[in-house]
Amino acid sequence: MDVTTLLNEANAGSADAFDQLAEALYPELKAMARRRSRGGPGIGATTLVNEAFVRMLSGGRLNSADRQQFFGLAAKIMRHVIVDEVRYLSAEKRSGRDVTLAETIVGDDAHERAEFLLQVDEMLSMLESENERCARVFECRYFAGLTTGETAEALGISERTVERDWSSARSRIASLIDDSSE
User: Fold this and answer.
1) Whether this model's pTM surpasses 0.85
2) Which long-range contacts (CB under 8 A, 24 or more apart) does 117-121 make?
3) Do 37 and 48 meet the contact criterion of CB atoms below 8 Å apart?
4) 97: pLDDT confidence band, cut at 50, 70 and 90?
5) Taking each helix axis from N to C terminus, what angle separates 15-38 and 67-94, rounded to the nearest 10 degrees?
6) CA 174 to CA 169: how far, in whole Å?
7) Is pLDDT larger for residue 88 or for residue 111?
8) Higher per-residue confidence, 93 vs 44
9) Contact indicator for 85, 54 with CB cutoff of 8 Å
10) Cβ distance 7 to 70 under 8 Å?
11) Are 8 and 22 in contact (CB under 8 A)?
12) What is the dihedral of CA 42, 43, 48, 54, to 10 degrees?
């Protein structure tokens, strides 16, 4: 059965369809999360995927009509999971508590990398108001670790458009970060 049919059946309440959907999509989400984990700060791939699934199901249904929407939503949720975890760890560290997990999650320079990630998230929010599609491309590539082809599929655009938007989004976010540092 295809993903769109399974999503529709799962949203209609079919537990069997949801189980099939989870079995079909979990490996892809895990691969996304693994690629993202290698790219910088964040939580482990399994934790990221599990938390994303929990958040996607928090309303009791998967708010996606098809495979495209599902992976677009997954990218957005992964962004929020990563940023929320970094904010939590930063707050714990500032409170004076011993948070050794931060070092294992974001490396020796945990504070600087965590602050940078939060700054990227803030600038991405600014980009969203300027160019929604570029922001979605950045979110898919940077926070979810999607490839160019996967991003194109998730957003329903061509790979060439993904490449242009990815370049544009990175340049714009870098510019916004530079401007905020002055």
Assistant:
1) no
2) 117/40, 117/41, 117/42, 117/82, 117/83, 117/86, 118/83, 118/86, 118/87, 118/90, 119/177, 119/180, 120/173, 120/177, 121/79, 121/83
3) yes
4) low
5) 60
6) 8
7) 88
8) 44
9) no
10) yes
11) no
12) -110
58 SS3 class: coil
pLDDT digits (tens, 9 = 90+) for 45-76: 888 888 887 887 776 667 777 888 888 888 88
Residue indicated by tokens 């998967």 = 62
- What token pair was written down for 180? 């905020």
Using the structure block, give the residue that is written with the tokens 């309303």.
Answer: 59
Structure token pair of residue 104: 């294992």
Cα of 113 vs its chain's centroid, Å: 17
115-146: per-residue pLDDT in tens? 788 889 999 999 999 999 999 999 999 988 88
Residue type, position 44, single letter:
G
